[in-house]
Design goal:
CATH superfamily: Nucleotidyltransferases  domain 2
Number of helices: 6
Shape: globular
Number of domains: 1
CATH class: Mainly Alpha
Oligomer: single chain
CATH architecture: Up-down Bundle
CATH topology: Four Helix Bundle (Hemerythrin (Met), subunit A)
Structural class: mainly alpha
Length: about 140
């Protein structure tokens, strides 16, 4: 797999997290939630690409995390798959909010508040930590 494409996806993921933080600091909570979701999606896609050669055309952090978990299980890495599965299960509610915000923050009639945006950013940071841990264990 191209290390260059993997690095590009991670770079983009990190930039979306920076945008989420900036939006939050400027009071744009809709933008913060949207950008946090996009950051997670790209980070998971980077890992999927690096280890499985996949560039999924699906969206949604929960679906992507589930795909990663399933591929890790199929590869016999239940130890690593459990990290991803536990993260998704423990954070289901906020991941639901993030997925909702991906569309609603742009097109919907729902606006997100400061606390929701704060939680979105927190979970994006945690997702990055989990994904880096996954990479560390996979080598």
């Amino acid at each position: 797999m191209s290390g260059e494409y993997y690095r590009l996806l991670w770079y983009r993921a990190e930039r979306f997290l920076v945008r989420a933080l900036r939006d939050y600091s400027e009071g744009d909570y809709d933008g913060a939630c949207f950008n946090a979701e996009e950051a997670i999606q790209l980070a998971v896609k980077a890992v999927l690409y690096k280890y499985f050669g996949e560039v999924p055309r699906i969206h949604g952090s929960k679906v992507l995390l589930s795909r990663l978990r399933n591929l890790l299980m199929d590869a016999g890495r239940e130890d690593v798959a459990s990290l991803v599965g536990r993260f998704a299960a423990d954070n289901r509610d906020i991941l639901d909010l993030l997925e909702e915000s991906y569309t609603m923050a742009r097109y919907g009639s729902i606006s997100y508040g400061e606390r929701q945006a704060e939680r979105c950013i927190e979970i994006a940071k945690k997702a990055f930590e989990v994904l880096k841990d996954v990479e560390g264990r996979l080598g």
